[in-house]
Design a protein that fits this description.
By secondary structure, the protein is α/β, with parallel strands linked by helices. It has a single domain, classed as Alkaline Phosphatase, subunit A, CATH 3.40.720. It is 33% helix and 16% strand. It contains 12 helices and 14 strands. The strands form 3 sheets. It has a 10-stranded mixed beta sheet with strand order 5-6-4-3-7-1-8-13-2-14, sandwiched between helices. The protein has a two-stranded antiparallel ribbon with strand order 9-12. Strand 5, helix 8 and strand 6 form a beta-alpha-beta unit. Helix 3 runs parallel beside helix 12. The longest helix has 24 residues. The chain is globular, with a radius of gyration of 25 Å. The relative contact order is 0.20.
Length: 420
């Protein structure tokens, strides 16, 4: 009996020492077949406490809004580490003002891009899938519509279809982001000056090889009264005067990154240059540009960090170029935002615990190869007149009111900026 007790004590001591050693020198790996989660009831008030804005004395003549769709704090952190290590300095690190943005929609903790873009552009919470309308489906006034009445040049850029949720949420009014025939028609009928991205098929009838079921050929209409660009070569070689609206449609749907397509940086540089020309040549009040790195989100949905790194790298180049532009003058506000986080990206411990780290382990934590949006707050970076109002913790609807205050829309008389 004593012999059994002795063997038992030795076994227990050996197990304890083994566990202690593993805890000190290596992670204990446990396979968990399902993610642990917990559901809880919450109070979902529809009332928003409007933030008290600081009054901006020196107003912004121009505004640039850059949106990394699906880009949370961990996407930025993982990109930084993959790019140059944890101490690498990115363009995001160069902003003097930062904040966090709450992104829930009208009746759901998890927003989609349509509801989030509508909140940014109108100051109104709405339902997921809704574009430029409130929760009842009634049209709301968008920041682009306000600025067009004040004589501004407006431009929208995306690496998705230009009819996709974020650019559409800054442009049109519809109860569904999936009504692509109506959305494309409304975007053509809007007075926005520059539209750049994919989505050519939504402007062409099915009989001509497109996807429009109503047989309206919007591409013919664009060619009749605007400037149509269909390739990177056409974009880069464009040297006409800024006398007409410009439509750049470079792919059937979202950009596929072919050599014939421009990058987000190409489209942004073009839109920035043309916007400046339009303002200067036509005596306009200023310009407003929204440019979206749309496919950061798509990579999150696909749980593909290599894909996401490339999209983040491209978006980062745009942020850097925009930051250099605003740093060279004192009349332009730059805001870098996301509309929500996608995929539940985590940066986890790699290899041996308490040992020097030589690699980065990232994981996706919402769904296997079909990641979903999460409800975490997203980062905001700002520079220029009015940047102070994008700091601290704000709601996504506050972005609209902060833009109006930065520009001083109530103090600008109505005027029409006619291109000559």
């Amino acid at each position: 009996m004593n012999q059994i007790i002795k063997y038992l004590l030795v076994a227990i001591l050996s197990i304890a020492l083994t566990i202690f050693y593993l805890d000190q020198h290596a992670p204990i790996i446990v396979e968990v077949p399902e993610k642990t989660s917990q559901r809880m009831s919450i109070e979902f008030s529809k009332e928003i406490e409007r933030r008290q804005l600081q009054k901006i004395e020196k107003k912004a003549k121009n505004v640039i809004v850059l949106i990394g769709d699906g880009m949370g704090i961990n996407q930025i952190t993982a990109y930084k580490i993959a790019k140059g290590g944890p101490n690498y300095s990115t363009a995001f690190d160069q902003f003097p003002f930062t904040g966090l943005v709450k992104v829930h929609s009208f009746d759901n903790l998890i927003t989609d891009s349509a509801a989030s873009a509508t909140a940014f552009s109108s100051g109104i919470k709405t339902k997921n899938r809704y574009l430029g309308v409130d929760s009842n489906g009634d049209e709301v006034e968008l920041i682009t519509e306000i600025l067009l009445q004040k004589g501004f040049i407006t431009g929208l850029v995306a690496t998705s279809e230009i009819t996709h949720a974020t650019p559409a949420g800054f442009t049109i009014h519809n109860i569904s982001r999936y009504n692509t025939d109506e959305i494309a028609k409304s975007m053509y009928e809007s007075k926005n000056h520059i539209l750049m991205g994919g989505g050519k098929d939504f402007f062409i009838p099915e009989s001509k090889g497109g996807q429009r079921e109503d047989e309206i050929n919007l591409l013919d209409m664009i060619n009749n009264d605007g400037i149509y660009l269909d390739s990177k070569e056409a974009l880069m070689s464009f040297d006409s005067g800024a006398s007409k609206r410009i439509f750049g449609l470079f792919a059937k749907e979202g950009l596929i990154r072919s050599e014939d397509e421009p990058s987000l940086l190409d489209m942004f540089k073009f839109t920035l240059d043309q916007s400046k020309k339009m303002v200067d040549q036509n005596g306009c009040s200023g310009f407003f540009i929204m440019a979206e790195g749309s496919q950061i989100d798509w990579a999150g949905h696909e749980n593909d960090f290599d894909y996401q790194y490339k999209e983040m790298d491209e978006f980062h180049d745009v942020v850097g170029h925009a930051l250099e532009f605003v740093q060279s003058r004192d009349d332009t506000l730059l805001i870098v935002l996301s509309d929500h986080e996608t995929g539940g990206l985590l940066i986890e411990m790699d290899e041996l615990r308490r040992k020097p780290s030589s690699s980065m382990l990232v994981s996706w934590n919402t769904a296997l190869e079909e990641g979903t949006h999460t409800g975490t707050m997203i980062p905001a970076f700002s520079y220029g007149p009015g940047a102070i109002n994008f700091t601290g913790v704000i709601d996504n609807t506050d972005v609209f009111f902060s833009l109006k205050e930065a520009i001083g829309t109530s103090e600008i008389p109505n005027k029409e900026c006619t291109l000559n």
